[in-house]
Structure formats: structure tokens, C-alpha cells
Amino acid sequence: MKDDKEALRVGSAVRRRRRSLGLTLASVAERSGLSVPFLSQIENERARPSARSLDKVAEALETTAERLRAAADSARTVDVVRAKESESGVRRLVHGRHQLGALEFTGEQDTGREFQHRNDEVLYVADGAVEVEAEGRAYRLERGDTLYLSGGVRHRWRATEPGTRILSVAVGEHIDATVDPRG
After folding, report:
1. Is the separation of the CB atoms in 164 and 112 below 8 Å?
2. Long-range contacts at 155-158 (CB < 8 A, ≥ 24 apart)
3. Which among 12-21, 41-50, 120-129 has the top mean pLDDT?
4. Are 144 and 102 in contact, with CB atoms under 8 Å apart?
5. How far is it, in rounded angstroms, from Cα 90 to Cα 97?
6. Which of the residue ranges 40-44, 112-116, 153-157 would you say has the lowest mean pLDDT?
7. Tens digit of each residue's pLDDT (9 = 90 or more) over 60-97
């Protein structure tokens, strides 16, 4: 029975991928040769696609069945990261490769390094203060402040107070979130 449940859960991954490409069910049906009602049932996890059908759907969505299964697996992940899990002031808050990545930086971090991420990122100052340079402008952030950076924005930051804690949450670099659904 475990395999049946896992096969059913691929629907959410299919829906996310279709929407990220800005495709309608009708266009996926046309590309795959499968019917709109069947695709809708797959997405709503009321139908289990055969391996052949999933291959057709994956091809229509410009990906592979394996990637769709992996995306479905990551959608079911529950994981705890303990406060003790830290390396030299940087702690991963999410294990593995998922749609979101999160890091906590603690202390007076100043790598002097410029960053440019493929996808969107949010910086949240949990404690202390930080100076951020982004798109040629300087920002001073204090406890409770948040800075949003869209994908592609070059930026650098440094903590300016002892005990500063910064939370960085970003769409995973392996995710192509650069598609504009507005066309």
C-alpha cells in the first residue's frame, strides 16, 4: 500500500511544475496526449498515473518522471534541525535539497563577499544589526527588520553588533523560479 500512496502524491508535484511553466491543463493534455480530466485527477491525487503516463506528463512539463517523483518526495518531508547543529556561526535550518533553503548566521559575520542568488531571498534580523549593500544602495537593518531580494540582485552584508543573528530564507538554487507566470 505504501507504493500506492506515494504514486498518488506525485499530483502536487505535477501541479507545481505545470504552474511554474505557466501552462494550462489543456496545453499539457495537448503536449502529452492525455485527457484534461485524467490530468486533473492526477493533480488532485484521485488517479494514479502509470509509469508510461507519468513519462508523458513529465515530457510535456519539460522534466523527467524521476524529478517529479523527487519533488513529490520532498513535499512530504518532515525534518527537525536541532539548535546544537552549527558550524562556525552558520547553521542550516533545512536539511537536504528542497524548494526552500534556510540558514542562520550568528556573530559578527563579514565575509566581504558579494552574493547573487538565482532566486528570491529574504533576510530577517533576529538579533543585533546588519548593514546590507544591494543594487548600489546601503540598508541598515535592526532586530525584527526584513529585507527582500529578488533573484539576480547582487548584494553583500555584514553584522555590525556582537551576537547578531540573521535568518536567510531562499528558494533553492536548483529550482527554476525565474519563469514569470504573467507571460
Report:
1. no
2. 155/114, 155/115, 155/116, 156/111, 156/112, 156/113, 156/114, 156/115, 156/132, 157/109, 157/123, 157/130, 157/131, 157/132, 157/133, 158/108, 158/109, 158/110, 158/111, 158/112, 158/130, 158/131
3. 120-129
4. no
5. 17
6. 112-116
7. 999 999 888 877 765 556 777 777 766 678 888 877 76
Among all chains, which residue has been given the C-alpha cell 535539497?
97
Nine-digit cell string for 53: 503516463
Residue with cell 547578531: 164
CB neighbours of residue 125 within 10 Å? 23
State which H helix or E strand residue 136 sits in.
Answer: none
Number of H helices, E strands in the chain: 6, 9
Strand boundaries in the chain, DSSP class E: 90-92, 100-106, 115-116, 121-127, 129-134, 137-142, 146-149, 154-159, 165-171
- For residue 128, give the amino acid letter: G
Grid cell in block for residue 172:
533553492
DSSP assignment letter at 87: B
Give me the sheet containing 137-142, strands edge to edge: 115-116, 154-159, 129-134, 137-142
